[in-house]
Design brief:
Keywords: Signal. By secondary structure, the protein is mostly beta strands. Helix content is 12%, strand content 33%. It has one domain: Thaumatin. 33% of the residues are buried.
Length: 190
């Protein structure tokens, strides 16, 4: 019985180790990505280089970022400009007993200022896998041209969602066209 239990724990850890966040850029311009691990440097997720260029996703392009399952907070910072000076959208997550995630507009325009560089675009974060749709393991939907109340706008707001550790993939779609959003049966409420 102990062997079976140990195998189950090992299988859960292995599945989390191979989890990924797939970012799809439907925007008409490049987007730039930096990753901050446990409040550390903002690194290129492909190289781990803190001083190097950010990961660039071309229009219509896609990138997959492996999750870090060490229980600490990770922030994937997304910008429309190479230098990250015109604002960021943050996809934040932590993997411990579950997969916790949120979108944040905090520091979206600049340090301490709420706002989102993707305000005029539809953005969604959609968990996939066996646990998707249960409890709070539901998509975060941010429709264009309105404040996204499903994303953090205040530090003390409760916007974090949690998924079972069997939900090991996340689709983060930027600048989704209205007709594509509606094809998936997602409405525009936030």
């Amino acid at each position: 019985m102990r062997t079976l239990c140990a195998f189950g724990v090992l299988l859960a850890l292995v599945s989390l180790a191979f989890a990924a966040i797939d970012i799809q850029n439907y925007c008409g311009n490049k987007v730039y990505i930096r990753e901050s691990h446990n409040g550390g440097c903002d690194a290129n997720p492909d190289t781990g280089d803190c001083d190097g260029d950010p990961l660039t996703i071309a229009p219509g392009g896609q990138a997959s970022i492996n999750t870090i399952a060490d229980g600490t907070g990770i922030s994937i910072k997304i910008s429309l400009d190479f230098d990250f000076i015109s604002g960021i959208l943050q996809f934040e997550y932590a993997v411990s007993d579950n997969f916790y995630f949120d979108l944040s507009d905090l520091d979206g325009i600049s340090g301490g200022v709420v706002g989102a560089p993707f305000r005029s675009s539809n953005v969604r974060a959609v968990p996939t896998g066996p646990g998707a749709g249960s409890g709070t393991c539901k998509p975060i939907l941010c429709p264009a041209d309105v404040t996204c109340h499903a994303a953090y706008q205040l530090f003390d707001q409760e916007a974090t969602k949690g998924c079972p550790d069997t939900t090991v993939f996340m689709d983060l779609d930027l600048c989704v066209a209205a007709h594509d959003w509606q094809k998936r049966g997602v409405n525009f409420t936030s």
